[in-house]
TrEMBL record:
The name this protein goes by in its record: Cytochrome c oxidase subunit 3
Pfam families, alphabetized: COX3
Gene: cox3
UniProt keywords, alphabetically: Membrane, Mitochondrion, Translocase, Transmembrane, Transmembrane helix
GO biological process: mitochondrial electron transport, cytochrome c to oxygen
Location of this chain's protein in the cell: Membrane
Gene Ontology CC terms, in alphabetical order: mitochondrion; respiratory chain complex IV
Entry annotated with the keyword Nucleotide-binding: no
The Heme-copper oxidase subunit III family profile domain, residue ranges: 12-269
InterPro entries membership: Cyt_c/ubiquinol_Oxase_su3 (IPR024791), Cyt_c_oxase_su3_dom (IPR033945), Cyt_c_oxidase-like_su3 (IPR000298), Cyt_c_oxidase_su3-like_sf (IPR035973), Cyt_c_oxidase_su3_a-hlx (IPR013833)
Record-annotated membrane-spanning stretches: 24-43, 50-68, 88-111, 171-189, 209-234, 246-268
Protein family (similarity comment): Belongs to the cytochrome c oxidase subunit 3 family.
Amino acid sequence: MSKQSYSTINRASHPYHLVDPSPWPLAMSLSVLVMALGFVCYFHGYNKASWLLIYGFLSVFYIMYVWWRDISRESLNAHHSTRVQTGLTYGMMIFIVTEAMFFVGLLWSFLHSAFTPTIQISQTWPPEGIVPIDWARRPALNSALLATSYFTANLSLYSIQMKNDIKQCRTYLGLTILLGILFTFYQYLEYNDSSFTMSDSVYGANFFLATGFHGFHVIVGFLFLTVCFLQLPITTRTHSLGLQLAVLYWHFVDIVWIAIYGLIYLWGNVQTLRPTEFAVDNMDLYDILLDDTKASKRY
C-alpha cells in the first residue's frame, strides 16, 4: 500500500484541505531574518554585509518560488474545493487589513510629527533645511502609472472570468506588471536624487519608512502577478483564484499610494506648519534644551 498524504485521507468525507507538513514557513522566516540582518549590517557599514544581504534576498525569492509551486500543485490535484477557496479569500482579506493597519501607523507617525514639530527641528514642518520632493514630478508620474495599472489589472481579470480569453488576459496582465516595474524604477530614481536621507530628522525617517515599505509591497505585488502570468496556460474561468487574489492585493497597493501621495507628498510638503501655541522665546528655548541635556547626563 502506497503512503498517502494528509490531503488524500478522507478527502470525500469533508470539503477541507488538510495541508501536508511543509518546511517553507520556517525556512521563509529564517530567510527574512537573514535578509533583515543583512540590511542592518549593510546600513552600518560592516564588511561583507552585502553578501549577507544578497544571500537573504536569494533565499527569500527561492522559497517564494517553491512555496508557490507547492500551492499550485495542490490546486491542480483538486485539493482547493469551494470551501477552501472561500477560506483562502478570507485569509487574504484579513492579511490586507493587517497590512493596512501597518500603513495607518506609519501615516499617523508622519501626521503626529507634522502637527507637533519639536524644538529640535525649529518647530516647523517640513523641518528647516529639508527640501521636499516635488509632488508634481516623479510622484505624479508614479500616481499615473498606478492608476493605469488599476484598470489593466481589472481588465485582465475580466478577460479570464467573463470572456475566458487567455490572450487578452496575458496582454493586460503583462501591462500591469510592466507598470509596476516602472513605478519601482522611478521610485529608485526619486530616492537617488533626493536632497535628504533617512537620517535627516524625523521627516526623512517617516518619509523613507512609509514610501519604502510601500515600494516593497509594490515589488511583492508585481511578483505575485508575474506568478499568475506564468500560470496562465492552466488558468480558466473557474480556476483563477490566484489571479483574483493578486488583483485584490494590487488594488490595496493602489489605495495605500493614494494616502501616501495625498498626505506625505502633497499636504505634508506644500503646507508649512509652525504652531503658534508652542512658540517660545530664546530664553525658554535655552532652558528647555538645558533641562534635556541634564536629563540625558543623569541617565
